[in-house]
Amino acid sequence: MKSSTRYYILLITAVTLYFAVSKVIFDRVNETSQIIVDELFHIPQGISFCEGNFSYWDPKITTLPGLHLTSAIVGYYFPCNTYNLRFVNLVASCFNLMLFVSILTFIYGSYNERQIKIVLQALSLTILPPLYFFSHVYYTDTLSLLFLLAFSRLCFGHKGKWLILLIGNLSVLMRQTNIVWIAMVLGHKLLDILIRSSRVYGNRYLSKTVMSQRSIIANDVDSSKLKRYYTISDVIVALKFHLSTCFKVPFKFISLSDLYVIIQQLSVLVSFSIFLYVNGSIVIGDKKAHEATIHIPQLLYFLLFYGVFGLPYVLAKFISTTKLIFKNKFNVLLLSIIIGIVVHYNTIVHPYLLADNRHYTFYIWNRWFGKYDYAIYATIPVYVFLLFSLYDNLKDQNCISFLLPYCICLFFALALQKLVEIRYFLVPYIILRLRFVRPSFKVVWFELLWYIAINLVTFYIFFTKEIRWDDFEEVQRIIW
Ligand SMILES: *[C@@H]1O[C@H](CO)[C@@H](O)[C@H](O)[C@H]1NC(C)=O
């Protein structure tokens, strides 16, 4: 059989299987609960748009109305009810599965990797437990991820004339924090161009040869200085060189297709800036509940997220990480002190975290961090280990042109949020997961089974555990 035929058969089988199983769970969720946590505002909003009434807007909703606008389209063809509104997300998750396959194929190269291995990994990413849960309810996460993945795929492939601009704006319309990741993609591209264009003959910061700036040879790429992965010192060399030549060289190296992509990404950023200016804040609606603060421990909680959902990768590298830690005793000490200061002075507890017993974060907080005075300090060794483990999984195939923009964007995406919500970690984790060292078959299977197990447990809790709130008629359930 031809390789491409086998690929499509595999893909169709995976999507069909995924949809069939998920549909059963989806129906069960529908029977179990008609209003799940934030759906209290989202569903009436969606129903209103679905019925063509655009004058109603619930101020409790803090995202842009992308999700609710899709319901207006649903309203043309289907009855406006909770089931149909939620169904959009289940369909979106099927598209996410296909996009993951496409992105992984691009990353690993279609001829170097067994197709079954790529499909299994895409399946794992689609059923990443918090993400998978929100694919069954009327939340923004799944649909917003769909547009972000499509945006990335288009940027990788330099495809679709003006599609990048359109999809980029739509992804912001689904969830305005997506702008951070769009900025990251742009930052990655620009830094890459900046570094590569500094590897030229006549760059005196790179080699001893000094040449006149006007000499023609100064513009030629010095292939002996080109590398696959650059480090921070290469960034410094690039900056020095470009400052000394007034940033004239990069323009000669930007290809037309790069320029096309960059202009579109910049346009998305500009339109967002206009929105910021008009709106006066990144949040719309209930601004009080989402005040911006500096909350650096969010980055540490993100490491815990990696520890749980990246467990197969943590274990696969366990011995090598341990060795790395023993080789860097001084850095370990320094990091522990820094993290100690951070958790001591910057641990912030949002009132929702203490009050809302429908989220797992509530239980983690009340049974560990909030219960024992020493807990925030006792977790420091775990953070340090996980940070080294993450570094270990990324270091061999990631360039500073990705890592630097990623870290800056991660800070903006997480460390300014007061409330700890597990779903905020989804996009940053997925981006990293796509950049880990190529996993072995064992790790791929472990990841899939691990996610299936976590989903089984959490859906079981969702279906069976009931929480009664005095001021709500409907039974409340525990979700991510
Ligand atoms: C969804 O659940 C509601 C309430 O239990 C039920 O009336 C409705 O028929 C369900 N929809 C579908 C399509 O199963």
Brief rundown of the structure:
With 480 residues, this protein is mainly α. The protein contains 23 helices and no strands.
SSE blueprint and pairings:
Blueprint: H1 3-32, H2 39-50, H3 66-77, H4 82-108, H5 115-126, H6 129-134, H7 141-157, H8 163-174, H9 178-196, H10 232-244, H11 249-253, H12 256-279, H13 297-309, H14 311-316, H15 318-327, H16 329-346, H17 351-355, H18 360-369, H19 375-378, H20 380-394, H21 400-414, H22 426-433, H23 441-464
The structure holds 2-acetamido-2-deoxy-beta-D-glucopyranose.
Question: What does it look like?
Answer:
This protein is an all-alpha fold and 480 residues long. Among the domains are: 178-281; 292-439, no CATH class. The protein has helices spanning 3-32, 39-50, 66-77, 82-108, 115-126, 129-134, 141-157, 163-174, 178-196, 232-244, 249-253, 256-279, 297-309, 311-316, 318-327, 329-346, 351-355, 360-369, 375-378, 380-394, 400-414, 426-433, 441-464. Helix 4 (82-108) packs antiparallel against helix 5, helix 7 (141-157) runs antiparallel to helix 8 (163-174) and helix 16 packs across helix 20. The protein is globular, with a radius of gyration of 24 Å. The two termini are 43 Å apart.
